[in-house]
Structures are given as C-alpha cells and as structure tokens.
Amino acid sequence: MEGEGVLLIATKQRLLVVDLTKLQNLDSTDTEFPAAPPSAVKVFNFVEKGFPLGASFFMRESKLYMVGGEKTRAGLSEEELCAPSSANLDESFGKRGLSPYIYVSDLTTLDSITQFREHSLTMLAPKTSPIIEEIEGKIYALSGPSCHYKDFLPAPAFEVYDPSLDRFEALPLPLFYQENSYDGPDYIIRDYSVVGTTIYVRAGDNYYSYSVNDRRWDFLGNSRHEIPVQAPLLPGINGKFVPAYKDILICFTLHALSALMLPQDGGPPLIQFLHEVYEDHLDMVSWREVGVVVAIGEHEMCIIRPKVVEIENVIIHRIYVVTFRVEKLNSSSPAPKLAKTASNSQTSDHDNDSAPIQDRDNSAPVQDSNHSVPFLSVTCLSKGFYNLPEWGYERPKILSAFFHRWSVFTFFSLCTLLV
Predict the structure, then answer these.
(1) pTM value?
(2) How far is the C-alpha of 401 from the C-alpha of 379, rounded, in Å?
(3) Which of 91, 112, 181, 300 is the most buried (most CB within 10 A)?
(4) Could you read off the pLDDT of 331-344 as tens digits, one per residue?
C-alpha cells in the first residue's frame, strides 16, 4: 500500500481503529459461523467515557475532531441508549443535553487517537449528529437527525468556521428547517453530497442546495431529473472518487459495488461492476446496513459494510472489509463505448428510520450488458468478513470512516514499539 496507516470507523457510540496492514484474505462467507475478529488496534466507546452520543467526526491537519451530539444520562444501558427518548438526555449538559462543544485528539500515535480534550472553541449553537464538511478551507456544520432530542432546533442550525478569523458565523436557516422543528418526515436529512462549492441535501423526499459562494438555499423539488448535476453526484449515491482520477467514482449501486466513469460532457456514466471486490455469491440482498467507501491511497480504496446475521440462534455483528487497487486500463484513451451505462431513473429503498447522512443504498439502476468492456483493472489486496463483538447491542450503522496515513517518523516509531 501507499504508506501505512489506520482506518477510523465511527458509529453513534464507538470509534474503531483498524490496522489495514493486518487485514487478511479470508475464505469464510457471511453465513458461516467461524470468522476472525478484525485486527483492531483499539475500540473506543466514547459515550461510555462521557462524550456525547451521535457526535460527528472529521479530520484536519493530523487532528481528529469530535463535534456536537447529545449527552445522555450516566448509567444508561445500551438498550436505553438505542431507544429514542428525551428522558435519556442529561439536561444539565450544554443546552438541554445538546452539545455545542468540540473535542480534539492528535493523530500521532495509536494511544493519542482516543485521547480527546475539549477545544477552546465552541459552536454558536448545539448540533445533533451534525453534517461537517470542509469547503475551500472553511468548516461547515449543519444540524442533522437527532437520537433522543425531539424539540425545537437551537439556533443557528447552520454555521461556518473560518480558520483565518478563528471564529464561527451563523448561516441562513435551511428551507427544510423553516418550521424550526425536528417533527415530521419532511425535516429529516436522509442524504447529502458536496459538488464543488454547493451542498446538496435530501430532506424527506425533497432536494435542496446551498451555494457557499452565494450563501443561499434553493428548493430543487423531488425529482433528480430536474437537477442539473450528474446523478451519481447527488445525495443517495454512497461513494468516493479515486484520488488519482477525477472521473472515477467507486460506489455502492443497489446490491453491487461499481466503478462509474463520469463523462466530462455530463452524459450518462459508464459502469463496471467490481466483482473481484464484491462477489455475487455473497448474500448482499439481505444486508440492511449501508456500506462506505474510503480512499486509502492514490489508486487504493477500501470498502466497509456491516451486517447483522443470525447463525444457530446467535445474533452476530459482522463487517466486510476489502482493500483493493484500481488503475485505468488505458488512461490516455477514452473509456470503452461498450461499457455499461447508468440510467437516469432512480430507485429508493428507504425504511422508516430517521436516517443519518449518507445512510441509504440508493442509486441508479444500470443497463446490464454481456458485451461490456471494462475500463479499470482491479487488484484485491485483502478481503474478508470479521466478527464485531465490540459493537454489543448497538446497531452497527457506520456514520463516517476515514483513513489516516502515519508520517514516516510515526510509522517507524510504531514499528520499533511493536518489535
């Protein structure tokens, strides 16, 4: 792999740190009982340590930030933590149990990753499960779905941090929050994406956009077809671009993993199913949990998808982790015209959950063809199912995942400690 590092996986309660270099090629399937635990360096239950439930994470300049969330009462069982109830909030913390606070840790050693300390800055208002994005050097924070809180939104629900001024500034209230309440399905953020300097949000069944440059929210209706952006870039497609290529998106499409090549003219994307990574014989259709895609190098990618299985009357949390390398077969020539083409029609398989950001496996159906010509070579580096007993009662829903590459000094220091 290009460098050595760790994979950070966050849920509402836990941060899992995985050493990718210790992953293996495992032959077991999702329906077999034997499965090895992942080579987890550390499992950090941050709620158990007194930090807010549903806090969001982001990385910047070799630091990991924990933002917002809901502070729950001490002593709650995992069953109570997972059962929405405003009675579970510690109303003496922050604003009625909601956190405006920011915590930070250093991504320098394995131990330092989970040693969070309170940052000197606080947000202007608390944010539940906030959407955090860095755009043109500024950090945007938007209140997301709540876990336990069911009252009016603290204002401002949307704000931005400017590092050059070292301060937060309130931004216009999103149109879907105009009633300033979490009540009702129309206010639930289901997905979001960032295209250039525009944030696209799907709240309820409608689409909205926020222009960073114009500082304005627009209502875009409930149809993707009327939005002048390529469909794979809109909310609902859970994927990442390959860093080496600006036109190759690795994403989950329905129950498959695909590579999409996006034409510069805005036409329908070409598609290649990545069977080497996401095999057809696996029972992917029954998976409820949505996977995530993480870039771990210029050409290297990682996918993670959790699953809850019942084997011999035992409920087991598992996670499917694959690392792989992709390269264009001929980067100097256009993509093959016989590759599969994604249709513009979209499907949805929402359940009744108040889904957090990028938490649905929605995507464009594709027009299959036996005459498809691949445009990528795919090399699988590691692949397998791993048991995750560390997640306990919590539904293993991944809210975010990041790859952090150690510096050369840190990597050799860790090697010395492990010898």
Answers:
(1) 0.84
(2) 22
(3) 300
(4) 544 444 334 444 33
